[in-house]
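Hi R.,

Here are the chain sequences for the assembly we discussed:
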Amino acid sequence: MIDFLVFSGSIPARTQTFAIVVSGGLFLLIVYLIRSGRLKEGYSLIWFFIALATVALSVFSGLLDVFARFIGIAYVPAALFLVLLGGVYLLGIHFSLLLNRYDKRIRQLAQEHAILKEQIAKLLDKKL
Amino acid sequence: MAINIQKKICIIVPAYNEEGFLAEVVGDIRKYCPEAQIVVVNDASSDSTKLVAWSQRVPVLDLPTNLGIGGAMQTGFLYAVRNGFDVAMQVDADGQHDPRFIPVLLEALGERGADMVIGSRFLERVGYRASFMRLFGIRFFAWLIGMMTNRRVYDATSGYRAYNKEALNFVAKYYPSDFPEPESIVIMLRNGFKIKEVPVVMKHRQAGTSSVRPLKGTYFVVSNAVAIIISAFKRRLRSSL
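And here is the predicted structure of the full complex:
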């Protein structure tokens, strides 16, 4: 009984099948991108776990029921949106951090570039 | 032979599309502070700022991409640190910072035990007439900085500044990028630097356009205020206090 609940929950079988197919497809896409080296280590981990979590939630869709009941959400799909929103929120922060880091690196590179150019100009000037 | 114990002074002139007055500003700096080394930071201008600077025979730090006033100034600070300067100054290329006051700022830096000296428009009521909104913004920053640091800084948005060696080393490492003037004051105060203000008379912008446009004024005030508040809570960056 418990097993049955965890596997299907209150979501209709057709919806669950659709969710499994879509999340499975996304998972394969992530694995493919990591394998082909297009998704670099830093991001691959975060996406890998997101994909894994989506697959797990659609296979064991009853988990969503358990989670919804636990935090007191009556309408189960709403719990799904909560999880998704939370994930997107965290991803947003993650990308902001990355942007900040790259912004700093670009600034440093540009500054070094300008200083080096001045040094070269000075050296060439001396030579002439 | 007299040993030269004079301090090496670097005057940083950040320039973004300032072909109009750059030559005159460089000339005036030479007139009022002939012993200083001038360096122009060209912040990826689209006009002939770079050529004008070259024609003045001063070193040009030519940024490959526009970094904004904070990033441009920091480039100048880095240059000054690496070339062993003892004092650095910022003099804007638009003619607003009258080079006549350079010796006044330098003197205050040497005599009054300050790490940074700001040329302030509001210690004496002469010259510069700010619009009501601008005045409100500047007063507001002064009040906010006072709240956050318990220190009074009258002209927080003035970029007319001189730094001693210690302050220079610090700003070369840590200088905010977007609207750096008020924020850098809070950061420096929090890290134990002493800031003094001396009255200067500023001219109205002679060329170029202000980086603070009327429509963006509100954005400027809000983001500066946020930066001031946040930087007041940031971790201290200098350990030896």
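Chain A has five helices and no strands. Chain A touches chain B at residues 103, 106-107, 110-111, 113-115, 117-118, 121-122 (CB under 8 Å).

Let me know if anything looks off.

Best,
T.
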